[in-house]
Amino acid sequence: MKQVQTLDLAFENIYNVPRQERRPVVVKELREALASSSEDILSFWTDWEPMAIDSLDAQLLGALSSSSSGRFCATIYRNGGAVDLKNNSTSADSESLNSEYYLGPKNSKNIYITKPYLDDYDGNTQILMISVSSPIVVGNAVKGVIGADINISHINKEIKESLKEQEGRFFVVDATQNLVLYDKEDKVGKAAAEVLANQHSRNEKLMEALTSKDSGFYTYYDEDGKNYIAYVSESEIFNKGEHSILLIPYSFIRSAIIETVLAGIILIVIAILIIYLVTVRIVKGIVDPVEKVTSVLKDLGDGNYDRASTIEIKTDDEIETMANSLNSLYHSIGEMSDFANAIGSGDLAARLDSKGEGDRLGNSLIKMRDSLEKAAKEEKVRKEEDAKQAWVERSVAKFGQELRNDTGDTKTLYNNIVRLLVNDLGANQGALYLLNDNEEDDKFFEMVACIAWDRIKMAQGRFLLEEGLLGACYFEKAPIELTEIPDDYISITSGLGTSKPKVLMLVPLIHNEMVIGIIEVASFFKIDDHKKVYLERIAETFAASLVSIKVNARTNELLQVSQMQAEEMAAQEEEMRQNIEELHATQEEMKRKSQKSDLLQKAIDQAFVSITISRDLTILDCNEVASGIFGNVPSAVIGQHLDQLMNETEVQQLLNNLGSLDGDRLVSADISFSKLTGNTKKVKATFVADGDTNGSTTIIGYELN
To answer: Which phi and psi angles does 512 have, rounded to 5°?
Structure first.
C-alpha cells in the first residue's frame, strides 16, 4: 500500500513534466519500483483515462504501453528473473476501465484492495493473489489508477506451517460470507455456507455464527468426519467485516489438557518446597529489605515517581541485586521521563541511551524521537515545496496578467516580458528570439528583445535556424541548460564592465508542435528547479499568445492593405467607367467598319477568284468564281491538289512564288492551269499568307483570258 501510495503521489505531479516525456517517466518509475520491491509483488501497473496523461493517444496506436485505442495503460511485470513491459496494445478500453480494480478506487477516490483470487499469472499454475490500487486524483478529478498485483500464496503456507504441530486448519470469510483464505486454495472465492454444508450436517451452529457474525467456540466436522474445536473471531486481514476461523483437532486439545494437569501437580509440589525455603529465609530477617523494595515498587506501580526514591541494601544476596535493579529502573524511568518531556516541548535534539535490544520502552522512545525528527524534516521539505509551488503559481498568474496588459505595441510587450522573466528568475540577462518565416525559403531567428541589468540592449540580430545553440534548441524542441559556457558566446554587461555568466538556459516556445520562438536567460547563479518549471510553463502560454499577436498583426496589416485596395478600386472603377464609355464609342466605330469590311469582302467574292491552299497544295477553300475556272462547283473542287490541275513547270513556278512570301509581304504573279479540258486558264493572282500554324495561303486574282 505504501509503495502504491508513493507512486500515486509521484504520478499526481506528472503534469510538471513535458507531454512527450510523461509516458516514459511513468514506465521508468514503475520499472524501478518493481525492481527494488519484494518478490511477492508480481507487477506494478497504471491505467489512465483517455487523453488524461497527454494528447498523444491517437499517435501511439500499437505502442506496448497503450491500449488498442492508444490510451496509456502500462504494466511492468516479473518475467522469470527479469522485469519487463507487458504488451497492452490489443487490450480493449471497456475491459480495463470497467474492471473492479479500476472502478473501485475511481468511485471511492481511496485506496482499494480486491478480494483474494486465483490467477494463472505464470501461465502454468494458479497463484493466490490480491490487487491493491489507488486513484490518481488531480484537481479533484480522477485521471487514472496506479496499482500492484501481489502474490499472497505464502500466507496459506505460513499458516499451515504454524498449525502443523497441532494438525490445525483455518479459513477466513469476508462480509459477504465468501471464502477469501482457505487451506485448500481451490475453495477460495466460494460461499462459506456451501463449503461447510457439503462437509457435514453438524456444522449448522458454525454456519449460523458466521451469518450472524458472532465470535466464540463451536464444533466443526470436516469432510472425513474429523472433529475440531472452531474459534470464530472478527478480523481485518484484507477488508473490514471479515471473520477468521481457527480449527484445532479435539484429540489434540484433550491430550494437551492431560499434559497440563500433570504439569500442574508437579508445579504444586515445587511451589510447596519454595514456600518452605522462603519462609525460612523470612525468618532469618529479610522482611525489611523486601518491604523497602515492595514500597518503591508500589509507588512506581501507582505512578508516584516523586514519592519513590532509590534504596540502599547491603545483603550480598539476591535482595541486594533486586534493589540495585530497582534503583536502575528508577533512574531509567527518570531519564525516560525527562527525555519524553523534552520531546514534548519540541526539543528533538534530546538524547537517550538505549540499554540494548531488550529495552523496549527506551528503544520505543528513541524510535518516536527519530520518527518525529523525520516527520519534522519532511514537513519542512513539504513546506518548502509548497512555497515553491505557490511561487510558481503566483509567477505564472503574474505573467498571464502581463500578457493581458498588451496595448498593441509588440516591442514594448516583448521588452516587458523579458524584463519580468529576468526579475522573476533572479537572472542577469535575457533575450527573446522569434522565428521569421515570412519567406518560405529564408527562415531565421530574429532577436526582438534583450534585457541586461534592467537596461534595454536591443541588437538587430539575425540567426540562421542551423546556427549554434538556437539551432540545437529549435531542432530538439527541448530546453537546453549549460553550466560550461564558451568564452566568446555571451557576456553580461554592467557599469563596471563585463563578466561571463555561470548558467545559460534556452527554452523553446512551442505551439502545435512547432517552435515559433526561443527564450534565453543567463545568470551568475544556478537557476532553481522550481524556477525552471515556471519558465517551461510560461513558455506554453507565451507561445499561444505570440501566435495570437502574430495573427492580430497580420489581420491589421491585411486590413490596411484592404483599405488601400478599396481606395484603389474606387479610382479604378472611375477609370473603368470612362474606359467603358470610350470602349462603347470604339465598338460603334468598329461595327461600322466591320459592316463596310463585310460588304467589301462580299464584293471581292463576287468579282475575284479566291482559292485557299495548304503547304502541300491541297485546295482548302474556294469561291464560285474560282470553281468556274475549274469547270465545277466549289464542293467538288475542295480537297483536290493543284498539281492535278497544273503541269510540272506551272507547279514549280507556284512553289517559287509561295516561297517568296515573308511576313506581311504580298507577292503578285501570273499563274496558269493547263490540265483542264484542253484549255489553259491564266489568272492574275496575289498571294496572301494566312499566318496560321497550318501554313495556308490564299490566292486572290482575276482571269486574264
So the answer is: 55, 45
What letter does residue 251 receive in the DSSP assignment? H
What's the chain's average pLDDT? 79
Q: Are strands 117-119 and 127-138 parallel, antiparallel or unpaired?
A: antiparallel
Q: Are 115 and 188 in contact (CB under 8 A)?
A: no
Decide: 240 and 115 in contact? Cβ < 8 Å: no
* Dihedral sign (CA 292, 295, 298, 304): negative
Q: How far apart are CA 212 and CA 209, in angstroms?
A: 5
Q: Are strands 697-703 and 681-689 parallel, antiparallel or unpaired?
A: antiparallel
- pLDDT tens figures, 493-521: 554 446 677 888 888 988 888 888 888 88
User: Does the pLDDT value for residue 227 go beyond 90?
Assistant: no
DSSP character at residue 502: S
3-state secondary structure of 252: helix
d(CA 490, CA 461): 14
Burial of 636 (0-12, 13-18, 19+ CB in 10 A): exposed
Produce one character per residue of 113-139: b if its CB has 16 or more CB atoms within 10 Å, e if not: bbbbbeeebeeeeebbbbbbbbbbbee
From residue 79, alpha-carbon distances to 33, 85, 131 in Å are 15, 9, 18
What is the pTM for the complete model shown? Answer: 0.35
The residue whose grid cell reads 477460495 is: 188
The pairs formed by 240-243 with CB atoms below 8 angstroms and a separation of 24 or more are 240/175, 241/174, 241/175, 241/213, 242/172, 242/173, 242/174, 242/175, 242/180, 243/172, 243/173, 243/210, 243/213, 243/215
